[in-house]
Design a protein that fits this description.
This is Methyltransferase domain-containing protein. By secondary structure, the chain is of the alpha/beta class. 32% of the residues lie in helices and 14% in strands. It has a single domain, classed as Vaccinia Virus protein VP39 (Rossmann fold, 3-Layer(aba) Sandwich). Bound molecules: S-adenosylmethionine.
Length: 317
């Protein structure tokens, strides 16, 4: 067994280890200290109109919140301020998702929801907060309340959020974590079979093939049945699929992360369908960073073949 394989076999792969260790420093390739130009007109408009942040306070507010998020976990989506631009509206299925959640009572869950930017976008676009659910392994949720100032508004009162691990999800009965009022916390698998739309944005790429299969099988368990959808995006590649460290600052090599193209994505879903006795139509597209509005120059450290894979997976049976 190679050293890398041994490290992978020994590692707890529920969460990337680098996202914990790099919180101590900003000297990493995926942190830009000046993000003024990423606080776009759209971002300002949202923070003014949804959150009620006065115009002159917006820049300071965004910098302060990013500090807090970085102190929890060090991710490129924080360091490059990607969380300012929700990914969900860029998904080709977004109009259909809005239709189903806004007008047909569909339940929507965001797994790896971070500060809840995609969920806020849905509410801003008219979806009822009571149809929305979020899950993350670690609490960025409270920073989200501070960012969007909506803890005591319909979002904070009605969106259901839990902390759990999507690789090894539990039910309430398997959990011994107590809430402040002595009740036992809900866990991800308490929502088994209840979700119509599942969003997994910028998270599956943390894992190798086997763990991505395991996570997606858990997402299948959450899905209600035929017509459920799994949507999202992740880093993909037009070149080699198994990323190994090719420069010191590249964090993604640790678990031999698997970066898909549309064909491997389809193959992975054939395996998931077979192993869960379900049937899915899996579509994906590779987009350049420019195409989705990110700065291509940020991503030098993960190589010229890297792209964003946008996906829509529909349950047929
Ligand atoms: C890179 S961030 C992406 C966040 C957000 N979805 C977005 O589009 O910006 C990955 C998120 O997944 C969460 N996460 C990582 N491993 C997880 C796991 N095993 N279970 C649940 N959430 C996890 C992280 O805490 C983080 O909030």
């Amino acid at each position: 067994m190679s050293l890398l394989n041994k490290l992978n076999a020994d590692a707890d792969t529920s969460e990337t280890s680098w996202s914990k260790t790099y919180t101590e420093t900003k000297e990493v390739a995926f942190f830009v200290s000046n993000m003024d130009d990423r606080i776009t007109q759209d971002v300002r408009h949202f923070l003014q109109s949804y959150s009620g942040i006065p115009r002159h306070d917006i820049v300071e507010h965004v910098y302060r919140i990013r500090e807090k998020a970085w102190a929890i976990r060090a991710y490129p989506c924080t360091g490059f301020a990607l969380f300012l631009q929700p990914m969900l509206p860029l998904n080709p299925a977004y109009p259909f998702i809005l239709e189903r959640v806004r007008n047909e009572g569909a339940n929507f869950i965001d797994v790896g929801c971070f500060v809840g930017q995609d969920l806020r976008r849905l509410v801003f676009d008219g979806c009822p907060p009571s149809s929305l659910f979020g899950c993350d392994i670690v609490n960025h949720w409270d920073v989200g309340f501070e960012f969007y100032r909506d803890k005591d508004r319909p979002f904070g009162k009605n969106v259901k959020y839990i902390e759990d691990d999507m690789l090894h999800p539990k039910t309430k009965n398997q959990s011994n974590e107590e809430t402040l009022d002595g009740d036992v916390d809900m866990k991800l698998m308490d929502w088994k079979g209840q979700m119509d739309i599942i969003n997994a944005a910028l998270v599956l790429h943390h894992w190798n093939w086997d763990d991505q299969v395991a996570v997606c099988k858990n997402l299948v368990r959450l899905s209600r049945g035929p017509e459920s959808m799994i949507v999202g995006c992740q880093i993909g590649s037009t070149g080699k699929n198994v990323m190994e460290p090719h420069c010191e600052e590249n964090p993604y090599g640790t678990f031999q992360t698997y970066w898909h193209n549309p064909e491997t994505w389809k193959s992975m879903w054939a395996v998931i369908a077979e192993e869960t006795g379900t049937k899915w139509e899996a579509k994906a597209e590779l987009k350049t960073f420019d195409q989705i509005g990110w700065r291509a120059s940020d991503w030098w450290y993960i190589g010229a073949c890297s792209r964003v894979l946008q996906f829509v997976v529909k349950r047929l049976e």
